[in-house]
Amino acid sequence: MAAESGKIDPMHQFQIQTIWDPGFSIAGHPIVLTNSAVWMLAAALALWAFMLLGMKRQVIPTRGQMLVENFTGFVTKLVDDNIGHGGRKYVPYVFSLFMFILFANLLGLLPLGLIGLHPFTFTSHFTVTGVLAIMSFSIVLIVGFWKHGLKFFSLFVPHGTPLWLIWLIPAIELVSFMVRPFSLGLRLFVAMIAGHILLKVLAGFVINAGNAGLIPGLGVGIPSFALMIGISALEVLVAGIQAYVFALLTSLYIHDAEHLH
Question: What is the per-residue pLDDT across 155-169, written as a single tens digit (0 to 9) for each?
Answer without folding.
Answer: 888 777 788 888 888
